[in-house]
Amino acid sequence: MVSPTQHPPSGIKVLIVGAGFGGITAAIECHNKGHQVIVLEAFPELKILGDVISLGPNAGRIIERWGNGSVARELLPITHNNKELVMHRFDGPVVTRTPVTGLKFGSPAFNGHRGELHRCFFRFAQQEGIDIRLNSRVVEYWEEPDKAGVVLESGEGLEADVVVGADGVKSKARQLVLGYDDKPRSSGYAIWRTWFTSEELAKDPLTKFFSAEDTHHGWIGPEVHFLAASLKGGKDVSWVCTHKDEKDIEESYQFPGKIEDVLKVVGDWDPVVVSLVKHTPEKNMVDWKLVYRDPLPTWISKGARICILGDAAHPFLPTSIQGASQAMEDGVVLACALFSAGKSRVPLGVRAYERIRYERCRRAQLMGESTRDKWHKADFDNLMSSEENMRAMDLPHPPWLFWHDAEKHTLDVFPEVAKDIESGKFGTDEIGFQTSVLRRENGKIVVGNRSFEEPSGEELVQVLVKEQVTAAL
Ligand SMILES: Cc1cc2nc3c(=O)[nH]c(=O)nc-3n(C[C@H](O)[C@H](O)[C@H](O)COP(=O)(O)OP(=O)(O)OC[C@H]3O[C@@H](n4cnc5c(N)ncnc54)[C@H](O)[C@@H]3O)c2cc1C
Question: Which is more confidently placed, 470 or 404?
Fold first, then answer.
């Protein structure tokens, strides 16, 4: 059981495309709220893929409720159990020590191997009896006024009251929702990332400390930062290095990483970093292009029977440390909004999901950019000259982000959000962290933090004004 209250059947059928952190969370939470769920995942089998991923206390709050704490207990031995993040200047001196949040925000954070954490989520969903269909690639989406559906590669068709595209950065669902293909662009940065066991590090006096216990160290330099962690008592080690990369990306965004390329960037840094890189098995390294998307104008289809969530709706930079957590919050909010709306008002539930999530999510996304920029563009010559300069490099721990209870918040604000949507009210409402998706200010249309002249040549605005906004404005 997800939480002490397993709700009776709501009669709402939900098809979820993608079994990543966003899709699986949406499935578990919808199941708990009494909705009938089918998850469609393209992968033919569950594999332990990826490397390090972080789930903040706002995600920990969700996980703690699953199985009366059983999932949280399963995660503890395989996640990071360190005391502080020690930040260094690129050449070695310690800039600042940020204590881990512990239970300061009421729930634990879980940082560990993406594949290992994901396996716990996946198994829990299976134990809950959720229908997860692997080897089920969705190739087509459609919607009608009272239902929506998908077509699988096999030709099989499925329909439901609502279809959720939790299909990641290369989302197909997004095309249907937007009415055009929104291509990602390079963020100007890429990240080398890796995960390996610490035997070789233990033999080197410079890197031995990583193998002795759980640790977390970071190094910041001009346009580059390097974060390294050891966990499981020092048995496993992971590091990531974000660096400038101006290459354009097309479809593929992940390539094999090369040690020699990393050393071209950090070869004259703190000898600890250099040794760590040299002891890394190259076969475990990837060079991951950090794609960027401007905030999408909408996450829901015209008829509000299809929505997107997680990376499909909002890719995050790693420095926000919130990509998976925000995908999880999406799943919770959608499940609760559908629950509050009820079977007869499914589109209202979907619209409320978007309104409740959009601005909060954008705020978390922007944090990734500001943290990256403060680390990459610091005044490195004067960094150590004052306590204030040093503390400014701390990883931010904003209470608005970490104290948030996505379930409680949605159930609390739904009636007011629903009233606004039904009455066509747009733009002025701010309920908790929720504001409207679009608003009109000084003769301009404002989407997130971007504004457009009206009329404008932008296809985006045309789509919005024609298809969605006219009535509401
Ligand atoms: C294999 C993999 C490894 C990753 N490794 C890391 C990592 O090491 N560190 C990190 O920070 N982040 C990693 N990520 C990204 C991270 O999981 C997400 O940024 C975040 O958790 C948000 O999750 P999501 O559910 O929105 O998207 P994702 O985790 O990307 O999940 C999307 C899911 O949708 C499925 N899918 C896509 N298209 C279709 C389709 N047409 N039909 C059916 N299913 C489809 C995909 O197979 C995937 O399982 C990884 C993602 C993947 C898929």
Answer: 404
Strands (E), 41-81: 52-55
> What's the CATH code, domain 185-292?
3.30.9.30
pTM for the whole structure? 0.89
Ligand 1 contacts CB of residue 57 (under 6 A): no
Q: What is the pLDDT of residue 473?
A: 27
Residue 186 phi/psi, 5-degree rounding, is -65, 140
Per the residue annotation, which of 193, 305, 362, 363 is the catalytic one? Answer: 193
Write the CATH number of the domain with boundaries 13-81+106-182+294-415: 3.50.50.60
73-85 pLDDT tens trace? 999 999 999 999 9
Among protein residues, the one with the nearest Cα to ligand 1's atom 50 is 50
Residue ranges covered by each domain of the chain: 13-81+106-182+294-415, 185-292, 437-469
How many Å apart are CA 330 and CA 328, to the nearest integer? 5
Tokens of 123: 């198994």
Distance 39 CA to ligand 1 centre (A): 14
Q: Is 150 in the pocket of ligand 1 (CB under 6 A)?
A: no
Task: Residue 299: count other Cβ atoms within 10 Å of its Cβ.
Answer: 27
What value does the mean pLDDT of the chain take? 87
Confidence band for 290, pLDDT divided at 50, 70 and 90? confident
316 — phi, psi (to 5°)? -110, 150
Q: Do 13-81+106-182+294-415 and 185-292 have matching folds?
A: no
Task: State in Å: Cα 455 to ligand 1 middle.
Answer: 37
Return the sign of the alpha-carbon dihedral for residues 384, 388, 389, 392.
positive
What is the residue type of 468? Q
* Residue 193 known to be catalytic: yes
Q: Does residue 181 surpass a pLDDT of 60?
A: yes
